[in-house]
Design a protein that fits this description.
Blueprint lengths: L1 E4 L4 E2 H8 L5 H9 L3 E3 L2 E2 L5 E2 L4 E4 L18 E4 L3 E6 L16 H9 L23 E7 L2 H13 L3 E9 L6 E5 L2 E3 L7 E3 L8 E10 L2 E8 L6 H8 L24 E9 L6 E5 L4 H13 L4
Parallel strand pairs: 9-16
Antiparallel strand pairs: 1-6, 2-5, 3-4, 3-6, 7-8, 8-9, 10-15, 10-16, 11-14, 12-13, 14-15, 16-17
Helix pairs in contact: 1-2
Length: 304
């Protein structure tokens, strides 16, 4: 049973979901329908208005257990030793099991490839996973094979010594050759599946960008993450008016150049090896879909 203090006045489902951002509004509605949201022992009605400062009891049932099973899915392994494995993840692959994606994930493939040699810090659904990239983002992702390696890599993420460089195609053209977006990111106030630049409930987020190549109406960019917030590059590029090509969540709502997912690739990784302390620098080539976009841009959208 969780005690929640209401922060915004409104209907019970909206007010509770605003105070409990980890729950979607529809999830709160289900809890209310089951009588699991109450005030002083009295079940709350769905259309009841709640006011700031009111303390509400929310009984969140334990989630049904999910188990990640090994699956014989081919992996493009870029680097591997006794402590870490770095994979070039294809576009369209989910990183770990979740509702709606019980199998076919990177974790399922890693379990088949590594067996029991994955860290257990993130539990049974995310073994070895140190950081994530979105389903439709391709490129390098690192996993830890033991808990010590995981802890040391997580520390590098925290102090920004684990460097991640992405390449993308953004909509529009830039006045400068390079720049920095320093804008905090938090959960979107009305769409819980999205993030946004906001001062409320946010965390610092910094993205450095530079132009690689320009076309008519589009720009090929290199982006370096200083922080690692959810959807950071996608949110930051949209925030400055240059959403990523194909990003139908934060950018244009219709497919462009045949893309229905963001043209974003995790191109390079640089980290200190968790055991030896030596610098490890890795890169991977652009995937076919990205190369095809560049061919189209260099052909029909070239700047004369």
């Amino acid at each position: 049973m969780a005690k929640v203090t209401i922060t915004e006045e409104g209907r019970a489902d909206a007010a509770v979901s605003a105070a409990l951002p980890e729950l979607t509004r529809s999830a709160v509605q289900r809890l209310i329908a089951q009588g699991l949201v109450s005030v002083g022992g009295r079940a709350v009605k769905k259309n009841e208005r709640l006011v700031p400062g009111l303390v509400v009891d929310v009984d969140i049932p334990e989630p049904e257990p999910m188990e990640a099973a090994p699956e014989d899915i081919p992996l493009d392994v870029v680097y591997e030793d006794a402590d870490v494995i770095v994979v070039n993840k294809p576009r369209g692959m989910v990183v770990h099991p979740a509702p709606g994606h019980a199998g076919g994930t990177l974790v399922n493939a890693l379990l088949a490839h590594c067996g029991d040699s994955l860290s257990g810090i993130n539990g049974t659904l995310r073994p070895g996973i140190v950081h994530r990239i979105d389903k439709d983002t391709s490129g390098l992702i690192i996993a830890a094979k033991n808990d010590l390696a995981h802890q040391r890599l997580a520390e590098q993420l925290k102090d920004h010594s684990l460097a991640r460089t992405y390449e993308c195609v953004a909509v529009g053209n830039f006045r400068e050759h390079s720049g920095t977006v320093d804008a905090p990111i938090g959960r979107h106030p009305t769409d819980r599946k999205k993030q946004c630049v906001t001062a409320k409930g946010s965390r610092p987020a910094v993205t450095h960008w530079e132009v690689i190549e320009e076309f008519r109406g589009y720009t090929y960019l290199r982006c370096r993450l200083e922080t690692g917030r959810t959807h950071q590059i996608r949110v930051h590029m949209a925030h400055i008016g240059h959403p990523i090509l194909g990003d139908m969540v934060y950018g244009h709502k219709k497919p462009e150049l045949g893309l229905t997912g963001q043209c974003l690739h995790a191109r390079a990784l640089r980290f200190l090896h968790p055991t030896t302390g030596e610098i490890v620098e890795l890169t991977c080539p652009l995937p076919d879909y990205f190369e095809e976009v560049l061919r189209k841009l260099r052909g029909s959208y070239a700047i004369m």
